[in-house]
């Protein structure tokens, strides 16, 4: 049942300091998830379908991966509801010269099976077989929790990143960045919509540029907040990925990333918010130790509000991490 | 002496309609130019060097290239001055199933040899051997002409593309677009600066998005103005490529593209203008025929001035093309 | 001990008809082989090393792979001599919609461990543990056989592909093709030489162009002859890959591919032959059935000699295949 994906990390997967981009890892995680969930959803006779990414739960980057190491990505289906599949993915880095292996990520992804005949139709998911009885009940709880959270995060579509002339260092305007990307065939499934992993890779790229502009050092992804994918992005769209810093602690930066899709050629559809998430970055010294980061200076009322919200998320995660100091699976 | 490069065009080289991006072709042209000029500049004993792109003369895209065709790019050194090399590059498309071959581009590039020990030092170029005596004199004229033109095009660094809220269709603000790109290892020569071809490919990508946003149809590159490369872009820079429409004729659009480099990590160097050029795009019907384009509505004084300048360039090229109606090589 | 590599096949991995390029598969095979052999050679304390590809045994492409399918590549060490490792690689294609799995390739690769401190020094290989006693003896026979064959194939360096003006259809000159590639960072190992898989992918690309030019239909790789890698190709080299048709049977074409490396910047080293091999291609109808191919017309004495040699290889393989008509693993 498990699915495994392995690949050597190359120069193009990493930044100038040799640390593999968080976005490269997120893209591999999503590929492993898409394979196992598409396989599962087609395991019974009936209409053929493709699994589309609906949500990624919050994930931490536990240790850095470097060029030349082998990434091992393993995926397993851990729960199925009537219309969705939960996939658990683990990422290990292996140094094939020394033999050292490290856990770098644990991620949870939710997929929804879309009919190949009509990609707007959601099909039913064959039930998974659980090895322990409690697994189904635990999975149902996770399913309900994420459903609730998805409801709450309806994005304010009007809110976009606005450039400012001659911004001061350490302000939000100084480091904010946007990237446009014309969706090409390699970004897409066979059925003409963008792989969730491609979107996440671009999101991490923008977040990394914001972080590098802010602190002008070697920066790496520390964690990504839950990402909800509100709508499919189709081939031929232009997507705009915008990032702005929302909060800084002593040694971390939180960056909000917004993804908007613009069906350039198709006049009938308006630009829409496709996804958004918060990325946390840290700054590393040449020896790989975390460095203090310059404090963000929020200027407008909106920026101050977002700073406080970011602080709230930061303190909540800190408390949660301390509460979890017991041994875990 | 000649250098030849051939490659099958893949889905990622083309837009959704199957037409190969002008930027893909520009990138191959530059790769062929870089190989032949680097080889020539190292053909004598002495300090080792790498040839850096300094300028590309105006080039037309004479016929579209499609996925599955083979692009043949051939380069030849046509002139050398003390510190620069002129390379003439021809591009043919070959349909390997029907055997049809078409000339798609003729381009002229200028390279400068930079010392491998110190990339800020320009070395001397070994003289090329001419087969006809007049060639040297003709080359010297082209050399002087481009030198003069380079002098004249000193870029106004303050001039950047500013977004506007809720722009009206057909205005400059409506279609203007920016792209940020973090320079990665594959974008660079072995010596840590960006290949000229990579920059040109990104410039064409932005111009294409501007054109598609403006006319919402299948669009292709028709020509590129002379591009001057004012300064090297180093590994680790963030480059911002911005495009705005300057002029429309009945069936063509002119887009100005600006490239700014930001040495994010290196605090000592300010953001600088690295290159800029005008791209001309046409809109094609499903049968590949040119379509009328919506007329651009310039709003501000600057936009009106740029529109008139664009019109001047358009009329000048039109006159030149009609004057060249005599048989050509 | 086994190593597994999986990946979804994308549009860029395939030709216009949707068949995955043989070169894409060869590149994955080599990546799996490089991982497992580098890991094995570093499994004991001692000098760190990287495994460099020395030879690939003849391999057949048993069934075509398509876009959207998942390729599963598994590698296992089957023999070790004092200075080399034999790796057996199997490739399966999985259609995740229907669940169908097919064996597409079985390949045998030989690696040699090079010291990280001095890539010209070959290290010793830790012995592998065999599960059956006969395995060691069988492996030693394969090792001796390939060693003998490598000795025999000393390439004639003077023999290169020369273009001819206005060649007639079906001649060798008509379809012969060359491709020039500037080795970039992504083509290389961390230690600055080209991955064997990258070279094989380029070789297959040239062979495919030759085959398509000759028969002007959808063509696919049927098999690759043993490939010997005579010497490392270093970062910064320009490699020329040339292909020419040597022989046609009723339904297959044999193409010889030569790889020459040119250390452009480094004047002290001459251009050298890095590898060469014979690729066999077949032509497929739209329904995927093999089509007759136009007969090759050898013109010069050399071409006629190569045609006869190709015929010899073809008849030998045919006899071998008929002799193997007994059930196989």
List keywords for this structure.
32% strand, 13-stranded antiparallel beta sheet, alpha+beta, 26% helix, 13 strands, Thiol Ester Dehydrase, Chain A
Provide a short characterization of the protein structure.
Chains A, B, C: Its main location: cytoplasm. The structure is a homotrimer of 329-residue chains. Helices cover 26% and strands 32% of the residues of chain A.
What does it look like?
- Three copies of one chain form a homotrimer.
- By secondary structure, the first copy, chain A, is α+β, with helices and mostly antiparallel strands.
- Chain A folds into two domains: 2-142, Thiol Ester Dehydrase, Chain A (Roll); 172-324, Roll (Thiol Ester Dehydrase, Chain A).
- Helices cover 26% and strands 32% of the residues of chain A.
- Chain A has five helices and 13 strands.
- In chain A, strands 1, 2, 3, 4, 5, 6, 7, 8, 9, 10, 11, 12 and 13 form a 13-stranded antiparallel beta sheet that branches.
- In chain A, strand 10 and strand 11 (253-262) form a beta hairpin.
- In chain A, helix 1 (22-41) runs antiparallel to helix 4.
- Chain A is globular.
- The model of chain A has no long low-confidence stretch (mean pLDDT 88).
- Chains in contact: A-B, A-C, B-C.
- The interface between A and B is medium-sized, with 33 and 33 residues.
Query: Radius of gyration of chain A from the CA trace?
Result: 20 Å
What is the largest interface, and how many residues per chain?
A: A-B, 33 and 33 residues
Assembly classification: homotrimer
**What is the CA-CA span between the terminal residues of chain A?**
20 Å
The beta-strand count of chain A equals 13
Averaged pLDDT of chain A:
88
Largest sheet of chain A: 13 strands, antiparallel
Weakly predicted, low-confidence segments of chain A: none
The domain count of chain A comes to 2
Order of helices and strands of chain A: EHEEEEEHHEHEEEEEEH
Report the top-level CATH class of the largest domain in chain A. Alpha Beta
The CATH topology of the largest domain in chain A: Thiol Ester Dehydrase, Chain A
- CATH-derived architecture of the largest domain in chain A: Roll
**Global morphology of chain A:** globular
Structural class of chain A: alpha+beta
**CATH homologous superfamily of the largest domain in chain A, by name?**
Hotdog Thioesterase
Sheet-strand content of chain A, in percent, reads 25-35%
How many separate helices of chain A?
Answer: 5
Helix percentage range of chain A: 25-40%
């Amino acid at each position: 049942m498990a699915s495994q994906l392995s690949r050597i990390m190359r120069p193009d997967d990493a930044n100038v300091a040799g640390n593999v981009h968080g976005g490269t890892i997120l893209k591999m995680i999503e590929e492993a998830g898409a394979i196992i969930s598409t396989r599962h959803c087609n395991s019974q006779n009936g209409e053929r379908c493709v699994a589309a990414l609906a949500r990624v739960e919050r994930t931490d980057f536990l240790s850095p991966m470097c060029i030349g190491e082998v990434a091992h990505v393993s995926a397993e289906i851990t729960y199925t509801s009537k219309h969705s599949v939960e996939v658990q993915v683990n990422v290990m880095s292996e140094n094939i010269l020394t033999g050292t292996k490290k856990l770098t990520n644990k991620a949870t992804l939710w997929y929804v099976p879309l009919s190949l005949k009509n990609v707007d139709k959601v099909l039913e998911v064959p039930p998974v077989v659980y090895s322990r009885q409690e697994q189904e009940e635990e999975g149902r709880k996770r399913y309900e929790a994420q459903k609730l959270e998805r409801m709450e995060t309806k994005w304010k579509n009007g809110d976009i990143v606005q450039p400012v002339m001659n911004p001061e260092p350490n302000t939000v305007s100084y480091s904010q960045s946007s990237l446009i990307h014309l969706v090409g065939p390699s970004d897409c499934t066979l059925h003409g919509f963008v792989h969730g992993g491609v979107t996440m890779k671009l999101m991490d790229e923008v977040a990394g540029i914001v972080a590098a502009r802010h602190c002008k050092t070697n920066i790496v992804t520390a964690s990504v907040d839950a990402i909800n994918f509100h709508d499919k992005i189709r081939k031929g769209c232009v997507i705009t990925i915008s990032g702005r810093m929302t909060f800084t602690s002593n040694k971390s930066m939180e960056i909000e990333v917004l993804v908007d899709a613009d069906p350039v050629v198709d006049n009938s559809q308006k630009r829409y918010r496709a996804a958004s998430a918060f990325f946390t970055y840290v700054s590393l010294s040449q020896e790989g130790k975390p460095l203090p980061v310059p404090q963000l200076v929020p200027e407008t009322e909106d920026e101050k509000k977002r700073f406080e919200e970011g602080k709230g998320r930061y303190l909540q995660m800190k408390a949660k991490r301390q509460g979890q100091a017991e041994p875990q699976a």
